[in-house]
What we know:
This protein is of the alpha/beta class. The chain has a single domain (3-264), classed as Aldolase class I (TIM Barrel), CATH 3.20.20. Helices cover 46% and strands 16% of the residues. The chain is built from 13 helices and ten strands. The strands form two sheets. Strands 1-2-3-4-5-6-7-10 form an eight-stranded parallel β-barrel, surrounded by six helices. Strands 8-9 form a two-stranded antiparallel sheet.
Amino acid sequence: MQPQDAWGARWTDCANPLAHRFMQTAARKGSLVCLAADMRTVDELVDLVNLAGPHIAALKTHADMVDDFSRENWQRLVESAQQHDLLLFEDRKFADIGKVSQQQMAGAHDIRSWADIVTAHRVSGPDVIDGIAAAWADVERVGGVLLLAQMSSRGNMLGSEYTTQTLATGRGSPHVIGYIGNGSSADRIGALRAEVGSGQMIWTPGVNLDVGAGAMGQRYGHPRDAVLAGSDAIIVGSGIHAADDVVAAATEYASVSFQALLDRV
Ligand code: S5P
């Protein structure tokens, strides 16, 4: 399917090249799934991507939970993500001063050299974004930041005033491709979408076909409700990687999310 047919106004309004790349991949594969690959070894990650790769549109990692991380080892994951045309999203949740964020983008994990997208909290001030962008510039790459405007975990402190300030920081920034929204609540996503407008993306964790409470304070809403309320990418972790049949689960999340996008447009 042509991306403009699947995405409607979002395709024209969301001009950021990385957002376009995601929308293109999503339309081609018929999936809004960003797989949260919360695995502990590179082998497990590569196996998971090889299974789910055809049914997902982006890959999210937590490099600092991987026991056998090394730059050479990680390259295997980068290559399998490339083979499946996946944007690589390191969910580092940067939250320090700009200068330190720039250095953390280098360091042992060298995130700046392989990640296309990272997350950041707005809590330390707007300069965290400049620090991250400077790190990509240091290696002559361009990436996109997703600012955490909401969270899915219970008791979090990202209230509506904080969300509004976060959006004010991200609006118009060439480095901010969009926001993390709370996928467990369609109402919260709808409110976020109304405030964001259609020029930036909203990606939502806290979605599962099995709606309700998850482990350790995680909360889940239904992926279809999230997309209808304005989510552009559903971030799914255990719903796929912990399923008995990873391919079947990835296929189902893909079709539910993409059908919801078509119904929304
Ligand atoms: O508010 C948030 C933000 C994020 S990025 N809530 C989240 O759960 N996440 C991430 O989404 C979290 O770090 C994890 O990798 C994923 C959710 O995994 P699941 O197994 O609960 O689907």
